[in-house]
Amino acid sequence: MTYVYMVSAALFILSLKWMNSPATARRGVFAGEIGMLLAVVGTLIGGHIVEWQWIIAAFVLGSAIGIPIAYLMPMTAVPQRTAMSHACGALAAALVGTAEFYQKQGTGELTPVFMIPLVLETLLGYLTFTGSLMAMGKLQEVLPQRPITYRNQNAVNFVLFAIALALGIRLIMVPGDTLLFPIFAVLALLFGVLLIIPIGGADMPTVIALLNSYAGLSACAMGFALGNRLLIIAGALDGSSGLILSIIMCRAMNRSFTNVLFGAFGQIQTKQGAQEQRAYRSAGPEEAAAILEAASTVIIVPGYGLAVAQAQHKIRELFDTLTRRGIDVKFAIHPVAGRMPGHMNVLLAEADIPYDRLFEMDEINGEFPQCDVALVIGANDVTNPAARTDKTSPIYGMPILEVDKAHTVMVIKRSMSPGFAGIDNDLYYMEKTLMLFGDAKAFVSEIVKELPAKVNA
Amino acid sequence: MSDLEIALYVFMLATFVGLEVIRKVSPLLHTPLMSLTNAISAISVVGAILITGREGATNLSRILGFIAITAAVTNIVSGFLITDRMLKMFKRRSGKQQ
User: Fold this and answer.
1) Which residues lie closer than 8 Å to A33 by C-beta, 6 or more apart?
2) Given A8, A121, A145, A388, which residue has the most CB atoms within 10 angstroms?
3) Residues B53 and A77 sit within 8 Å (Cβ to Cβ)
4) What is the pLDDT of residues A75-112, one digit of tens each?
5) Which of B38, B81, B92 lies nearest to residue A212, judging by beta carbons?
6) In DSSP terms, which residues pair with A410 in a beta bridge?
7) Which residue of A has its CA nearest to B64?
8) What is the ipTM of this complex?
9) Does domain A281-456 have CATH number 3.40.50.1220?
10) Closest in B19, B21, B65 to A13, CB measured
11) Is residue B14 domain-resident?
12) Do A349 and B36 touch (CB under 8 A)?
C-alpha cells in the first residue's frame, strides 16, 4: 500500500517535470493518469473499504459530469473551467474534513495534531470553494467584472476572517464543540465570497493561480490529518505550482499580493476630471491590409479582446496569408494577457498557430524597434507606454510590451474607451498609430479578404 | 521520528521539488500546467474514498463523502482529458507551410 502511494507520488513529480517542454508534455499527462489510477486502485483494494455502492455511484456520476466538460467545452472557456475545478477540488477537501470531524466525535482521536490540519483544510477548502465560484461567475460574466466595493470593505473582511480563525482555534482546543463547526464553515464560505468580489477581471490570472495554490494546500492539510503522505506530496506540488504562477503574474503587473487582493484595482478613475478630446488616426481594412502587405516583419500582440471576440481562427488565416507572402509574423504574449496564465498560448495553439511563433515578453521586446508593424488585437494596458514614462500612472512600473517602438502600430479595438485599469493609453494618440475600430474577428477577416485581392491585381 | 515530523519533512521536500520543477515549465504551457496540477490535486479522492467506504461510516460521512468523490472524480476526469486536449494543439511549424 505504502509502496503503491510512493510510486504514484514519483509519477506525479515526473508528470510535472515533463510539462517543461511541449515535446514531452503529453507523456507527463500520461504519467499523471497512471499515478492517479494507481493511487485510486490502491486505496480501493487496500483493505479499509467495506462498502462499495456509494463509491461506485460517485465515480460514475463524476465521470458522467467530467467527460462531457472535457470534450464539449470551447477553449475560450478554459479560465472558467479552471475556476470551476478549483471549486470542486476545494469542496472535496472541505467535505472530507467536515465528515472526519463528525465521524471522530467522542473517539478521543481529535487531538490538536489532528485538529490543526483539519481546521486548516476546512477553512481553506470552504473559502476556496466559494472564492472560485465567484471567480468563475466573473469569468463567465454572470457577475460584473468590475470590482464590487463598499466602505470599510477590507476592515469587514479582516474582522470576518479573524472571527473564523478564532473559532478555528477554539475548535482545535475544544473539538467536542460540534455546534461551533457549522458557524465556522459558514464564515469560511462567506469570507471566500467577500475576498473575491472586489477583485477585477484583469487580476483574474493572479487570483486563479492563488486559488489553485489554496486548493492544493487544502488537499495537503488533509494529508496531514489523515496521515497520508501521498496527499501531502500531491497537495504540496499543487500548492507550490499555484504559488509560482501567482508570483509570476504579480511580477508581470509590478504589483504585490496584498495589492491584488485588497487593492480593488480597476475602478474607473473619476478624479482626472474632464479629459480633453485628443486627436487620433483611424483606418479601414483596406488601408490596414496595404500596410501589412508592405511590411516585412509583423508582430501581433493578442489580448483578452481576442478571446472575447473568438478571433483566434481568423488570426490564423491572417498569419497564413502573411507568411505565404514571406512576411515574418510573430506573436508577442504578455504574461497577464487574457484571464489566466498562458490563456493566449492555448487559444492560438487551438487555431493551429505553431508554438515556435509565440514569444514571451522578455524575448520579443528587443525586436519591436526593428519591426515594421505591430498589430495589437484586444490588448490595452499591457501596451501602455505610460507604464514606462508616467510616474503618476497607476500602472507605472509594470513591464509592458514595447509596441510603441515599432515603425507602425495598428490597434484593433471596439472604441476609444479606456482599458481595464481605467487609464487612457497614450499609444493610441501617437502619430504612427492607426486605430482600427471594430470587432476583432470581423476586422481581421476583412483584412484577410483584402489581401488576396491585391495579389491578383 | 514521530509521524508528524516525517509528514512535515515530506511536506517541506515536496514543496521544494514542486518549486524547482514548476519553475522550469515554459509560460507557453501555463494553462495546461494548471489544469494538470488541478487533476493531480484531486488526489483528495483518496481521502474521500476512505471516509465513504470504511467500516462504521456514519450516514453523514457517506453523504459528504459521496459528494466529495463526485467532485474529485469530475476534476480527475476533466482535468486530465482537457490537459491532453490542449497539449495536442501545441504543434511546431509543419513543413507544408514553407
Assistant:
1) B80
2) A121
3) no
4) 888 899 999 999 999 999 999 999 999 998 888 888 88
5) B38
6) A375, A434
7) A95
8) 0.92
9) yes
10) B21
11) no
12) no
